[in-house]
Write a structure and sequence with these properties.
By secondary structure, the chain is an all-alpha fold. It has 2 domains: 66 residues, Calponin-like domain (Actin-binding Protein, T-fimbrin, domain 1); 87 residues, Calponin-like domain (Actin-binding Protein, T-fimbrin, domain 1, Orthogonal Bundle). Helices cover 54% and strands 0% of the residues.
Length: 168
Amino acid sequence: MERLQPGSVDWGRVEGTPKNKYERVANCNYATKVAKDLGCKLVGISGQDIADGNEKLLLAIWWQLMRKDFMQFLDELDMDQAHVLTWANAQVAKSGTDIQLRRFGDKAIRSGVYLLQLMRAVAPHAVDEAHIKPGLTELERQLNAKLAISTAHKMGARVFCGWQDILE
């Protein structure tokens, strides 16, 4: 959160090495406060949930923070989501693939083909087309998603999700 907005964390309020459960929960409560101050919507999420390791609620916070980071990145580029989507669709079309996304979160992304073709369009040698599966079966979608994440890392791209998230 400090990286998203420098100065947002008052490190004097953070127990660097919490000695007990109460100090851990206090740190987690402070983390939820900072997340709310950054604009995250944390309805029904408490520091105790974080301390307990509630995966679903942790992911809810994580996704909001990643989205904020992504939106800041787009702002730096002076672009909005519509421009990014238009650009990505144009790149994928150049690759000869007829998949076009209507919005972020479009179900067509689940096969992994779109992401791999986008990476091929941007960096032709990054993805061997022979490794791209049609994405018709669950196994093919998993293989494509894993390849997409691996390739994105190799390209030095910001990766905001795991391969499982692509399938959802």
